[in-house]
TrEMBL record:
It comes from mine drainage metagenome. One of its GO terms (molecular function) is oxalate transmembrane transporter activity. Keywords: Membrane, Transmembrane, Transmembrane helix. This is Putative monocarboxylate transporter. GO terms for cellular component: membrane. It holds the Pfam family MFS_1. SUPFAM superfamilies: MFS general substrate transporter. The keyword Membrane applies. The chain crosses the membrane at residues 25-45, 57-77, 89-109, 115-138, 147-168, 174-195, 229-248, 260-280, 301-319, 325-344, 364-383, 389-411. InterPro entries: MFS (IPR011701), MFS_dom (IPR020846), MFS_trans_sf (IPR036259), Oxa/Form_antiport (IPR026355), Proton-linked_MCT (IPR050327).
Amino acid sequence: MSAIVSPQQTVATSSTELKGRWIQLALGVLCMMAISSPQYVWALFTKPLLGQVGGSLAQLQVTFSILIVLQTFFSPFQGFLVDRFGPRLLLSLGALLTGLSWVLSANAHSVGHLYLTYGLLGGLGTGIVYVGVVGLMVRWFPQRRGFAVGMVAAGYGFGAILTTFPIASSLASVGYAQTLTLFGYIIGAVGLIAAQGIKRPPSHAAMLSGHPAQKSAGVGPGAMLKTPVFWLMFAMMTMMSTSGLMVISQMGAFAKDFGVASVLVWGMAALPLALTIDRFTNGLTRPFFGWVSDRIGRENTMALAFGLEAIAMFAWLGLRSDPLWFVLLSGVVFFGWGEIFSLFPSTLTDTFGIRHATTNYGFLYMAQGVGSILGGPIAALVHQSTGSWVPVFGMMIGLDMAAALLALFVLKSLRARYMAAR
């Protein structure tokens, strides 16, 4: 005779299983830290790689563009694979591809070889892990999505802090080839080991929360892409990605033009000091505003954070010749920007549910790729045509304020109507 399981026993079992979500969060953070270096320490490799593979700096920088574009534009497909074949297998594959991209890049003798190794393999590998981990956390933490996604996104932001100085030291002592090989093995091994403990939450876990998003648990990407609320979120994430990636890609150039790059602040040159502070605030803001949004609402938090970045960039531009304010306000700018990687995936899953969360976020994450184009080469062309950074900053401030107002006065009501209709 088969055993009969009571509802009370099911809830008790589910509660026990959910205690393991903190382990899943820790493993997710570790996976994200492992794959962060290809993006954040690329600048350390440009000079030695240029001497090895030849070509121009512009040609070499295409490698970085390929990395980011493939990481974002292929994310819907990567998210589908994670949903289809499970997180452990795909995250393991992503970690191995990321590590392999560095190992193979160590033997590159042409720019085209780097495009295929560091760019292609690295972009696919990091994209699988990033989208997979984010999609998993929104399922494990149905009532704390903002905080959980913020924590793993912070892992991606903080991870390079641990590797930047060791990689710089290794480059100085043994050269780029051995450095890429050694850290490629480390990246692949750490990510692979962490991925072995990753698993899906129990199918009934989200139901325990009583979260209202369960009413829309079955919305897939096909239906989602037909809704105005998704495209509004896509436009807003593009706006915010553009402003933040403009600063990331152009900061060295405008710091030099402002005359503050090499000025000492607290005994350090202003530009590297600002970059160090930026990495910290860019990581800190993700769990912080994610936690805030779990309490005061997603749209209210968006308006607060996006408005903060707009104000900080306005003050940054006005005080651009003061090296101390340049350093301090750069940190505030990133504190108002990095939270997009916790707020948008949380809002998306709140709206369209958990069943297709990973694939759905893959489509939204493509906005980051669009922002990298607008904030990188397009912003540079605006500066080139005008001969000034003021119009560029003005455009970015306008995008930040528009996103803040859209969150408060359009997205909030539009999303409420959509969820009420479902």
